[in-house]
Amino acid sequence: MNRTLNVTALLLAAGLGGVAAAQTQTSYRGPKVTLTYLHGFTGADRPVMERLIAQFNAAHPNIQVRGQAQPWGTTWQQLPSLVASGRAPDVVVINEDQITNFIARGAVSPLTNAELQSAGISKSRFYGPLFKTADYEGKSYGVPISSVAYVMFYNKDLMKKSGVTKVPTTRAELLAASRACTTDRNGRKPGQSGFDARSLNTWGISLYNNWVGSRLAYAAILQNGGSLVDSKLNASFNSPQAVEAVQFLVDLVQKHNVARANSTEEAELAAFSQGKVCFFPSGQWYTDRFEQQKMNFGIAFVPRIGTKQDAAWGGSSHMTLPRQRAGYDANKRRAALAFVNWMTSPNQNLAWTEAGSLPVMATVANNKKFEGRPIAGVFAKLGNIYATSGFPWGGQVLGPFDNAWANAYSGKQSVKAALDAGVSEANKQITQARKTFQ
């Protein structure tokens, strides 16, 4: 979201003015220190971050933060050598798909419960799964500052035209609504004589073959009680729960004919914008696009395709404290924790949502500024967002998983064969990756 932010007005509207005053009081009482803060917010979100840093510096005369924005990929390349040479920044933001790798390699230092408490950082103020994204082997290593999520956009006009009066929340409802929204070029519906699945005019749901498309499969697997890895962190996305979940999605194309076969994200995005498809599961980052197009759309949490729980994929960024050289100034670490606490507190998170992030805590999600906004349709279930983290070999798992989804969705392989092949390949890569951690 790129709307201009009036922070003071938002704080007053939120009833957070008292909290704002309290947040100017830092837990740090030591001598003046200067902190280096490395982050990858280099786009439209950069001015918001720079404004927040300036506000912190103005309110904390004994802590001055020097922000450095650079592309995420540059940070991933540089951080290990910066840590090894004793030149690590004091605070660095790391994304969910990289954080466990850096933790396992010893590049990030754990945050003890005593440290968090002393700095005023309470785990309970954040959504539980989001905070745990930066946990590893029973320890915490980061505090969430930013979040995005996989959601389901829906076209209100096409739903109304198709006679669909309720946004689906279950597997059965999703299938029924998708059938109602699907017609071929001659106006026939699935199951009717002469229906041509190869020539759809409108269809129920968008599925597609890239990594974003595979995140719906990831959500379905979690909802069924499955996971990407087992307790030993080996790939396990071919479990019976996973096969059943992914089979339902593939059946939407191959059996029920309510989705296009082997489509791309770009094609489905265009189709949704043109009013051709009722339900478009994708990243919440498309919200601004649809608002600018003045579409009559809504946003819902991913329907419960599985049988065990609500779940959807989410990405996130966490503020971390890299491992420092021997003799590192303890005052700087305490000051860094005070900065992390301030930057991840409700008022600052409220401001940060203007950069396109979702709230990272319920207090902010309940703010009145979101009333009537489409994105608020997922807020009640933000506590059910799960990142693909917790295993150091993220690429070695996610690459084969994404490829398995593409092969199953396109019909190149059966669901079971595609997932089995993906797990086999992932575990081969994991075996090699493990050697780099020894």
TrEMBL record:
Keywords: Signal, Transport. Pfam families: SBP_bac_8 (PF13416). Residues 1-22 form the signal peptide. InterPro entries: SBP, SBP_1_CS. CDD domains: PBP2_UgpB. Belongs to the bacterial solute-binding protein 1 family. PANTHER family: MALTOSE-BINDING PERIPLASMIC PROTEIN, MALTOSE_MALTODEXTRIN-BINDING PERIPLASMIC PROTEIN. This is ABC transporter substrate-binding protein. It comes from Deinococcus rhizophilus. The lineage of its organism: Bacteria, Thermotogati, Deinococcota, Deinococci, Deinococcales.
